[in-house]
Amino acid sequence: MQSPIYPQSDPVSEHPHIRTFHARHGRMSARREQSLILLLPKFEITNLERPVDLAKVLDKDFIVVDFGSGMGTHALQLAQSDPSVGVLAIDVHTVGLIAVVDTATELGLSNIRTHHGDGMDVLKDWMTPASVNEIHVLFPDPWPKARHHKRRLITPLFLDLVVNALKPDGRMVFVTDDESYFESAVTIIASCGNFDVTFSDWEIPITTYHQRAIRLGHKISQLSARKTNA
Ligand SMILES: C[S@@+](CC[C@H](N)C(=O)[O-])C[C@H]1O[C@@H](n2cnc3c(N)ncnc32)[C@H](O)[C@@H]1O
Hints:
By secondary structure, the protein is α/β, with parallel strands linked by helices. It contains nine helices and seven strands; from the N terminus they run αααβαβαβαβαβαβαβ. It has a seven-stranded mixed β-sheet, with helices on both faces.
């Protein structure tokens, strides 16, 4: 069933940038449909006055964006383990965000919000500049075929938006099990010139795609790109 609140529109025609996600369609259980209609709007940042300063909205000093939060395990774990952190879980994946709002409601978490849609829009136009401490990009879609590389999230455009959103000492962490993606990301981030990059300084959270990578025996690579104040 299609959601009456979030119609399945064509993301390509709506967004001038290249789409970085797979469109997923499918039927939803009645229970999920209920959460979509009744719970998700309570967490969505869509209707907040822009620019959105999550530190003010959530009354937290430290803001983390989980960009492409999938089933939301990381965003939820972050919000639950540290109530002083404010978390924004972003994904186009409806079922994943429903899992986020179901669990956040069960646990009574007040420090987490969602965006159900293309996160590029959030970074482009919605956020107060220099208002985010960390942007976590965990196992983004690798788009392994060469002709699809243009759909990868880590591009100069995305990095410009990240730089704009991050606080002066903020950072982006990037984790992937796709070696060619990692190599290209390192090159693109270095040529952007706005980050100090370090490797392997972060305990990678166990997300759905992290578990998959372990199961498949893939090499997992990570980097932390801290914004420089040049
Ligand atoms: C491979 S999954 C990884 C999910 C999760 N981070 C994990 O580690 O399990 C990548 C996720 O990013 C989402 N995604 C990709 N591009 C996006 C975009 N521009 N805006 C929002 N979500 C996006 C996809 O829908 C998908 O759920």
